[in-house]
Write a structure and sequence with these properties.
- This protein has three domains: 99 residues, Rossmann fold (3-Layer(aba) Sandwich); 69 residues, Dna Ligase, domain 1, CATH 3.30.1490; 238 residues, D-amino Acid Aminotransferase, Chain A, domain 1 (2-Layer Sandwich).
- It is globular and about 70 Å long.
- α12 runs antiparallel to α13.
- By secondary structure, the chain is an alpha+beta fold.
- It is built from 16 helices and 22 strands.
- The strands form six sheets. Strands 13-12-9-10-11-14-21-19 form an eight-stranded antiparallel β-sheet, with helices on both faces. Strands 3-2-1-4-5 form a five-stranded parallel β-sheet, with helices on both faces.
- The structure holds adenosine-5'-diphosphate (ADP) (2 copies) and magnesium ion (MG).
- The site of magnesium ion (MG) has 2 residues, from loops.
């Protein structure tokens, strides 16, 4: 039984989980740092507690979080994404404390948390993986392996995630220079310096399948998402379904994703990520054993609430639907509205939101933790809100997204909104002609003359007058 859920996360995903709980009639407990104390998700939760004075340590403090859950009488914990979401020790500590972890069992997290182990599992069940190596013991053996695979190759941290720990090597010189750097970075970021090599696939699509598995061995998928529009190997825009896949490839990929999940006795929602090359060959790259940022587009095209599904599965309910019941309806697009400057390498910015007006109308959804007066703390990721739209056709979805981006007003900080507007006008994007190299290739063509907001101009002029009168 699950009645009261502690949310071990912050920001938009904490709010998303609170919304799911409210509809299910469940009580929520938010945790927060001092920096997050007055923010939206904390106000919307039924209860809230300070998890630590520092901005980050609290959200990662397994024992403090479990203690708080016990103190507040919470019988389950939802980890969200990032932080402790893919931490097998955390899932195990919840299991040991008799608290339901809303995610898969700790063994499945452990098996898939390590990319090298995950590759082995996929291979064992006959799913193609990117040609590559196991953990590489030395620079010389890496150079030998890379010669066999053929350049370019990619260095990857086995424990990596969030687009970090990845390096492209075009030749042996690159490899010899980058490997030691990659190792020390992986050690620092993930506490594990295992690095492996993969063939670098040129201009692939990133296509991932949403898995849903209950505790009784039933596993289905909710179709795919194309997440090829990325910068720094991190996703910015996602679409569902993919414009690239034909029905036959889609079925084979979905079936492969289910086979991998079954191999680790997976038992909650998860995502199997693939790269798809120009010939539509697909290769497994990793599994994310948690809710994904971009789950919203799958919810929009399937009508299934994925967060509520997570809670039901964790509470021991069997799946209510079978594969044949999953129907994909229309097209959905998500744009991650980040506090970043697209004209300056998408560098994160901080500051205070001085004006906020969100789009509305048919087919529009916003998942955010931003409002007028919100001060963006410098400690966390730059995601302010997720704008998701749905249309009956791809063209309708693109037009709708463009309309919503035009309506969206966020003043006081730079955001990715103007950049996305240009993408929605780009012929290549509209035709579905994009790969993971899209932003690198198109950024210059899409560069826009900075459209100045007249209200910002008024503010600047007032500030100048005020400064002048003071002197
Ligand atoms: P997606 O965005 O597709 O859900 P990401 O891999 O971009 O998946 O990760 C989502 C969030 O989880 C980001 O905030 C990212 O920084 C964080 N994250 C993912 N993996 C790790 C990891 N191994 N260590 C720390 N943070 C991670
Ligand atoms: P993370 O755990 O950081 O999400 P992934 O293995 O999922 O790492 O890779 C993140 C992104 O990096 C992919 O979506 C893709 O754009 C790129 N990438 C990863 N592996 C390869 C590869 N072998 N060839 C080309 N691009 C790759
Ligand atoms: Mg990934």
């Amino acid at each position: 039984m699950v009645n009261k859920i502690l949310i071990a996360n912050r920001g938009e995903i904490a709010l998303r989980i609170i919304r799911a709980c409210k509809e299910l009639g469940l009580t929520t407990v938010a945790i927060h740092s001092e920096a997050d104390a007055t923010t939206l998700y904390v106000k919307k939760a039924d209860e809230a507690c300070l998890v630590g004075p520092g901005p980050l340590a609290g959200y990662l403090n397994i024992y403090r979080i479990i203690d708080l859950a016990k103190q507040r009488g919470a019988d389950a914990i939802h980890p969200g994404y990032g932080f402790l979401a893919e931490n097998a020790d955390f899932a195990k500590a919840c299991e040991d404390a008799g608290i339901t972890f809303i995610g898969p069992n700790s063994n499945a997290i452990m098996a898939m948390g390590d990319k090298i182990r995950a590759r082995k599992i996929a291979k064992e069940v006959g799913v193609p993986i990117v040609p590559g190596t196991d953990s590489i013991p030395s620079v010389d053996s890496a150079a030998g392996a890379a010669k066999d695979i053929g350049y370019p190759v990619m260095l990857k941290a086995s424990a990596g995630g969030g687009g970090r720990g990845l390096r492209i090597c075009r030749d042996e010189k690159d490899l010899r220079r980058l490997l030691p750097i990659a190792m020390s970075e992986a050690k620092k970021a993930f506490g594990d310096d295992s690095i492996f090599l993969e063939k670098y696939i040129e201009e692939p699509h990133h296509i991932e399948f949403q898995i849903v598995a209950d505790r009784y061995g039933n596993v289905i998928h909710l179709g795919e998402r194309d997440c090829s529009i990325q910068r720094r190997h991190q996703k910015l825009i996602e679409i569902a379904p993919s414009l690239l896949l034909d029905e036959e490839t889609r079925n084979r990929m979905g079936e492969a994703a289910i086979r991998i999940s079954k191999a680790v006795n997976y038992d909650n929602v998860g995502t199997i990520e693939f790269l798809v090359d120009r010939q539509k060959n697909f290769y497994f790259i990793e599994m994310n054993t948690r809710i994904q940022v971009e789950h919203t587009i799958t919810e929009e095209v399937t009508g299934i609430d994925i967060v509520q599904t997570m809670i039901r599965i964790a509470a021991g309910e069997p799946l209510e639907i079978r594969q044949d019941d999953v129907k994909i309806n229309g097209y959905a697009i998500e744009c991650r509205i980040n506090a970043e400057d697209p004209m300056n390498s998408f560098l994160p910015v901080t500051g205070r939101v001085t004006g906020y007006y969100s789009p509305g109308g048919p087919g529009v959804r916003i998942d955010g933790n931003v409002y007028r007066g919100y001060t963006i703390p410098p400690y966390y990721d730059s995601l302010l809100a997720k704008l998701t739209v749905k249309g009956r056709t791809w063209q309708e979805a693109v037009k709708r997204m463009h309309r919503c981006l035009s309506e969206y007003v966020i003043r006081g900080v730079k955001t990715t909104i103007p950049f996305y507007k240009k993408v929605m006008e780009d012929e290549k994007f509209i035709k579905g002609e994009f790969s993971t190299s899209y932003i690198d290739e198109r950024l210059e063509q899409l560069s826009y003359i900075c459209e100045r907001d007249p209200a910002d101009l008024v503010l600047a002029i007032s500030a100048a007058i005020a400064a002048h009168s003071r002197t």
